[in-house]
Amino acid sequence: MVGDEHITADYTLLERELHRDNPDLAARMRFARPAVAQLLRSTECETDFTTAFLTMVDDQHKNDTAYFLFVPVNDGHGEWRR
User: Fold this and answer.
1) Inter-residue contact 40 to 53 (CB < 8 Å)
2) Staple 30 to which of 16, 42, 60, 66, CB 3.0 to 4.6 Å?
3) What is the pTM of this model?
4) Interhelix angle for 46-57 vs 34-42, to 10°?
5) Which residues of 29-58 are buried (b: 16+ CB within 10 A; e: fewer)?
6) What is the distance of C-alpha 80 from the center of its chain?
7) Angle ∠(52,58,61) on CA atoms, nearest 5
């Protein structure tokens, strides 16, 4: 079973490789952490959703520089099924 810690570790490795090998592309890619993806999926508050989303896509100067956003998805049941 792949858990949040596996996704986070893979994202971290990929980000490091991208920054090393292609910094221009790395600057335009965003990886939503599992907890943020869960927040986006479960929140009913538009303000919370917008804040979480903009935190992912905006750079440090509040400019939307993201061309690609990777978001982990699941079936939402939170349990392992065989």
Assistant:
1) yes
2) 66
3) 0.72
4) 150
5) bbbbbbebbbbeeeeeeeeeeeebeeebee
6) 22
7) 125
The helix/strand/coil state of 82 is coil
CA pair distance 46, 76, nearest whole angstrom: 20
Side chain identity, residue 10: D
Q: Please provide the size of the chain in residues.
A: 82
71 and 40 in contact (C-beta within 8 Å)?
Answer: yes
For residue range 28-40, list pLDDT tens digits in order.
899 998 888 888 8
3-class DSSP state of 27? coil
